[in-house]
Amino acid sequence: MRAALEEIKILKSSIDAISNIIDEAGIIVSKEGMTLRAMDPAHVAFVDLQITKDAFSDYKVEEKLTLGLDLDRFNTILKRAGSSDKLTLSANDETTMNIEIKNSSTRRFELPLIDISEEEIKLPSLDFPAEIELDPKVLLEGIKDAEIVSDNIIFKVDENNLYLEAKGDLGNVKVKVDKDKAITFRVDSPCNSMFSIEYLKDMVKASDIAKSVKVYFGKDIPLKLEFIAPEVRLNFLIAPRVESE
Amino acid sequence: MPDYKCQIVKAINKLRPMSKEVCLRCKSSRLLCGRPSCPLLAKLKIQSPLEDKLKEDIYGPSPGIFVGHRGYPDVFIGPLTSLEPELAEISDNPNRWYGFDFNEIIKLRSTLVRSKSRQNVKEKTRLVEKSQEIALSLKPTYTEISFERKPSFSVSFSTLSQPQGPVGLIKKFDIAGNTKIPEKVDSVVGDEISSTEAAMLLFKSGYDVYYVTKVLSSGVLGREDRKKLVPTRWSITATDDILGKAMINEIKDYPVINEYRVYSNTYLDNHFEILLLPRKWEYEQFEAWAPNTLWTLAMEKPAINYEYEGYHGRSNYAEQEGGGYYAARFGVLEAIAKLRKQACAVVFREIYEGYIMPVGVWEVRENVRKAMASEPYKYNTLNEALNSISKRLKIPMNEYLTRTRILRQRRLEDFLNV
Lengths: 245, 418
Fold this sequence. Notes:
With 245 residues, chain A is of the alpha+beta class. Chain A has helices at 9-19, 71-78, 136-147, 197-203; strands at 2-5, 24-30, 33-39, 45-52, 58-60, 65-70, 86-90, 96-102, 106-112, 130-134, 152-157, 161-168, 171-178, 184-187, 191-196, 212-217, 223-229, 232-238. Chain A folds into two domains: 2-112, Proliferating Cell Nuclear Antigen (Box); 130-238, Proliferating Cell Nuclear Antigen (Box), CATH 3.70.10. Chain A is built from four helices and 18 strands. Chain A has a nine-stranded antiparallel β-sheet. Chain A has a five-stranded antiparallel β-sheet with strand order 5-1-7-8-9, with helices on one face. In chain A, helix 1 runs antiparallel to helix 2 (71-78). Chain A is elongated, with a radius of gyration of 19 Å. In chain A, 40% of the residues are buried. Chain B is an alpha+beta fold and 418 residues long. Chain B is built from 14 helices and twelve strands. Chain B has helices at residues 4-13, 21-26, 39-42, 88-91, 102-110, 126-136, 183-190, 195-204, 209-217, 232-251, 323-339, 362-373, 382-392, 397-401; strands spanning 57-62, 64-67, 74-82, 112-120, 141-147, 167-175, 260-267, 270-277, 283-289, 303-309, 344-351, 377-379. Chain B is globular, with a radius of gyration of 22 Å.
């Protein structure tokens, strides 16, 4: 396979968002594009990434391959690429992947691939009473605000507003997003759930690839993030924390 | 036997705590109050009639050495020499202390005289070399020591290290007997590998954590230009951390246990409940201190410290709990690795009023080891496991549930049948 990418942010930011959560995963490369679906070791978070072949300036795949990646290493290499560089991924088999970064020089990295034990991933099917589409920056900043005081964040919604809240020994934070400031806003019933900031702050590293992000949640059920971008599907699912008291 | 415990309780009753929170967070190890030494620990010194055994010159078996940390990199180093030859071996090996009460521990440690001389941690003087031979020897080595002045009797305490007996400045120090250093150790010392790798190699070859700690402290491990003495207190936690991290990597290759397991043990007024969950590695530890221990003198309610690390480990020091965190984590990992299993662990440690003084983190390590060696209770659900644990804890489970990360975090499969 051989895939060249000019808009490298798509891959860089997605892998940056994923690599802290998931240590090893297989990227399936097929004629349609690349997909990565994996659960984190604690089974708290699930990621579903698809980059369609149209995202690439050049895309050739003869046969379907599963490229087993140490995502941390992959991410370290991708970080070496600047935003104006051209990136080419290539592999002849499932043992090695070549990463070429081209600009005023040509840099070539050889990344040994690893065996990925394929676990069957079972996902819950959920009905979300709240579905809100936002500018990704709003979510990103809200999570950063919450992190100042806590490692938990509460997503809360009523008929008119979305709230991001955090409570800690060092104080409280409350971020309010007006219904009218959201891109779309559907709430069947007021609800709230708490999540680990540690996971969310990694997920929102993908904010810069998307024009908007859809947030789905409910009462003590997992939260789903759907980054909306052309030629890319990036979804995360994260299980809640039970609120005490 | 004199009642040391009683003497100490009397001394504590006269103490004024420095501050409410600072002491508990510091436990003498970080000197957060800004004083040059811990004023609480200083008052705990006790006197005893063992005085007449102390002379300007002593001859006896030395089971180990002590490396101080004050003045680093110029630190006090020297052997510990026993005044009671038949106790020499046991007196510096906490692996054999489980079950001893406060008085027995103090008595045992008070038979060891610490002799010291200031040396730079990178220096390789004859005195350092002789100390290294003693540290590496599996059997106590007979030594002859002349002091500048006759040491006076005292026993002092530390959160990390074992209690310490009389101390004297070295005038002259000679090895008078044979050392017994295993070939394996000689070869590891000679290898050009990092001290971390070397410590792990020794542990994997079957040497206990206390021996590895001693060897690391003596400054023989690591690449030639990096070799240096490691203060005893640092070496204790460094060894727990090095061996712990290596075992974390190891267990990640093993299958996850099938059920919830609960291990439990009490020793020296320290109660442990250790919960293993059928999930991949993560670790959290609660440390609940009753009021009126040395570190909680001004408190009216129990204080709960909390530390957590995720699957990918931690990069910062577990400040809230210090050495006790690493010692307990070591004990848990040692047992899980032996089972060739993987699990997520939640450790509840309750420290009751009767824990009047610190005896060193070996207490935590041996307590956890004892718990993990017992037959666990097994449960199919987390709730059953927590119910069982809460029956044996004094502090209500809710106090822990408001702080936990692991127990509050749901998993995606919990919603499969919703």
